[in-house]
Amino acid sequence: MSNPGTSTGPPAVSPRAQLFATIGALLALALASIDVSVVGAAMPRIADDLNGLGLYAWVGVSYAVAAAVVVPIAGKLGDMFGRKPVLLVGLAGFLVASWLCGAAQTMPQLVGFRGLAGLFGGVLMANIFTLLADIYTPERRTQMQGVFFGVAGLSMVIGPPVGGLITDSWSWRWVFYVNVPIGLLAILAVVVGVPFVRSGASWRDIDFGGVLALVAGVVPILIGLTLTGDGRPWTSPEVLALLIGGAIMLVVFFLVETRVAANPIVPFPLFRIPQFAIMAVVAFFSAFAMMGVTFFVPLQYQGVMGVSATHSGTLLIPMTLGLMLMGPIAGKALTAMSRYRILGVIAMLAITGGLLLLSTVGPETGQGVPITAMVLIGVGIGIAFPMATSVVQSAVPMSQVGVGTSQVQFWRMIAGPVALAVLGSILTAQIGVAAQGDVLGGGGVSPAQLADAMSDLFLASAIATAIGLVATFFLKEIPLRDMSAMSKKPAQKAPTNRTAKA
């Protein structure tokens, strides 16, 4: 059975509609990307006003878990019903959730509303990059993906100061309310510019069993990993129950998708496509490295090198600049080089090398070493992110571009909780749970002790990222321009469970 819904290549788009669609997608990306960093800057004031310090971390956890679990679901719905209605639902829901967050009166309310915002934020992230495949030629699509990833990187830099400025000038509630006018502009641009593709799918075609099994599997695992990152032992009963229960439900999800579902959310035959499988590995480990650096490098700067909190935040800028500047360049290089595997090797080698440099930082190390490391990591991520998306979009059938793209995004998003859990456990094992609160105060851990712990942490991160490096050596290049031919004829039929069993 072929995939219901849109089954042909992208329709012709006028330059005017393309411009409006791009503006809408950029605004949606800015909303979804900057939201987390903006809110993070306001969280101390929020926790104080709502008397909810005990739930401080769960405001972020609820958003991240909800966004990660909905990404593959939203990508499938975009393939079935078209990108335009799914994006509009995501934007409208995100605006409502943002307003509710701003109006929250208690911390539990805010945690719940942030989870709702995460659901619709995941809907946006699953379809924004897929939209580029609908409205641009393959050459321009790859270049625009580099630009879009640059915008996402820029949001990492401007988010905290913007969030702090809004909180100090108005109120923390306006950190959420400000999303509304921006979101309304995005909705208008999507309505005007994004082409509507008539779909033959109906709600009966949705894989509800797969949805339930996926949620029941991913959510407990991500929460369990979050608990380990907060200092709970991996062997604690609550962590084991969550991890084992989630793993069992993921087995159920696999059985539902391969034996029951007529139109599975995740068509597992896609993992038989070498380019798809390898780029999923690259996406995961490049995001793993990015999350580890973003979260733990400020601790290294402050606790090991004695840099102030304000200055330590600015020292993340070299990584972000590398990501922003390299994204568009990588997009052009991917379409200009027939043997673009070397780009993947360079990207993962740069990330791994940067992490190894960070593992050498000690109390007497100058700032040149970590800054060089951050530049290397930013350059590597700036290549790896658009490359993974572009290669997957060219490797999968046109009828499953949304599924393929959302899977890349899914592996990036779950890399965050995994990185924090694994690397946080290494830090805890080295300095102890009780001492973590004193790493900056001088009463618990010396800079030399923390340096040893951070060295092990970044060394482990480099070893993990090296798995992505090895994977790039097995990438077989396919012409990224093949999709231009596919867009002129009906797409291939989607892999089905029946073909998987053959």
UniProtKB/TrEMBL annotation:
Full protein name: EmrB/QacA subfamily drug resistance transporter
Alphabetically ordered keywords of this record: Membrane, Transmembrane, Transmembrane helix
PROSITE patterns tied to this protein: MFS
Membrane-spanning intervals of the chain: 20-43, 55-74, 86-105, 111-132, 144-162, 174-196, 208-227, 239-256, 276-297, 309-330, 342-362, 368-392, 413-437, 457-475
InterPro entries named among the record's database cross-references: MFS, MFS_dom, MFS_trans_sf
Localization annotation: Cell membrane
Membrane topology, as annotated: Multi-pass membrane protein
Pfam families, sorted: MFS_1
Gene Ontology MF: a single term: transmembrane transporter activity
Biological source species: Nonomuraea soli
Domain Major facilitator superfamily (MFS) profile: start-end pairs: 21-480
GO cellular component term, pick one: plasma membrane
